[in-house]
Amino acid sequence: MKKIAVLTSGGDSPGMNAAVRAVVRKAIYNDIEVYGIYQGYQGLLDDDIHKLELGSVGDTIQRGGTFLYSARCPQFKEASVRKRGIENLHKHGIEGLVVVGGDGSYRGAQRISEETKDIKTIGIPGTIDNDINGTDFTIGFDTALNTIIESVDKIRDTASSHARTFIVEVMGRDCGDLALWAGLSVGAETILVPEAHTDIKDIAEKIEKGIKRGKKHSIVMVAEGCMTGQECADELMKYINVDARVSVLGHIQRGGSPSGADRVLASRLGGYAVELLMEGETGKGVGIKNNKLTATPFEDIFNKDDHKFNTDIYELAKELSI
Ligand code: ADP
């Protein structure tokens, strides 16, 4: 393997830069040339492909977002369009491609490795949602978790000053991990996630009991995939007369300097992706399981649901918020 390329695709996440930096430095350390593909698969089609040097990734490890930029490129799902992208890779003599992104981005990488045997592909999980099979954690999850915790700690100050119930809506369409981990970390009264049913009437009763006991405030953590914060507040107020306020954290969850945990994870996964390419591996996504680096075939990542909702944490959060 003499030349590889790296791109970031789909939703950005803090730590993507650290992952790209690791890919670039690990490759150059091993005498492999590295090309950055700007704007994800769109840049691959537009031949927005440029050689990266050691210095190209200097001063990026601490930066959120992705300096390679990310883009949605729906037309990449069509084989005839992908052919153009593959031709561009061939034109530059690229033999290996590292894709940092989510499930959709992995599908693009899988197609490339199926459609041309001389380009090997490896995926690195970059998304704050923690919703990718084959890994316990995705790059960006820990930073987003810390952003939510910081925000809710501030909300809590005003919630207790005014004895209010705050409904905090966080990201997570299909995966409630951010709501779950953040909920446990901030001592939320209730955590609403897509993976578990919670009766709003029960939440109302719990909040009421807390108020009677002299509780100064309540925090309800809602994953967007379950319902919106406003829907939750409207439902709650059908059962109890509380001053419920809604906070939708939105895109601040995606930004910011990556946490230590994310920088370490991104660096490890970036380095490992290059090692796999050097060993001739292809069609796999890297990950971390029980603190061990793993490589899982894309096919299994798409079809084997091994990223289970952590019911132990969910039950513990319930027990600790009586
Ligand atoms: P994520 O990678 O975060 O899941 P998307 O689902 O938006 O984000 O996918 C990112 C990009 O990956 C898409 O814009 C498209 O270029 C490519 N992609 C998604 N699905 C496929 C597919 N089935 N085949 C080929 N490319 C795909």
TrEMBL record:
Native organism is: Staphylococcus petrasii
Instruction: Kindly list the cofactors needed.
Output: Mg(2+)
Record bears the keyword Flavoprotein: no
Taxonomic classification:
Bacteria, Bacillati, Bacillota, Bacilli, Bacillales
Which family does the record claim for this protein?
A: Belongs to the phosphofructokinase type A (PFKA) family. ATP-dependent PFK group I subfamily. Prokaryotic clade 'B1' sub-subfamily.
Reaction catalysed by this enzyme: beta-D-fructose 6-phosphate + ATP = beta-D-fructose 1,6-bisphosphate + ADP + H(+)
- Predominant location of this chain? cytoplasm
Q: Keyword set for this entry?
A: Allosteric enzyme, ATP-binding, Cytoplasm, Glycolysis, Kinase, Magnesium, Metal-binding, Nucleotide-binding, Transferase
User: What class does this enzyme belong to in the EC scheme?
Assistant: transferase
Q: What is this protein called?
A: ATP-dependent 6-phosphofructokinase
Q: Under which pathway is this protein filed?
A: Carbohydrate degradation; glycolysis; D-glyceraldehyde 3-phosphate and glycerone phosphate from D-glucose: step 3/4
Its activity is regulated as follows:
Allosterically activated by ADP and other diphosphonucleosides, and allosterically inhibited by phosphoenolpyruvate.
Summarize subunit and interaction data from the UniProt record for this chain. Homotetramer.
Q: Which Gene3D superfamilies match?
A: 3.40.50.450, Phosphofructokinase domain (3.40.50.460)
Q: Where does ATP bind?
A: G11, R72, C73, G102, D103, G104, S105
Task: Tell where it localizes.
Answer: Cytoplasm
Looking up HAMAP family in the UniProt record yields:
Phosphofructokinase_I_B1
| Binding-site positions, Mg(2+) | D103
* Origin superkingdom: Bacteria
Q: Name one GO cellular component term.
A: 6-phosphofructokinase complex
Q: Which Pfam families match?
A: PFK
Reported function:
Catalyzes the phosphorylation of D-fructose 6-phosphate to fructose 1,6-bisphosphate by ATP, the first committing step of glycolysis.
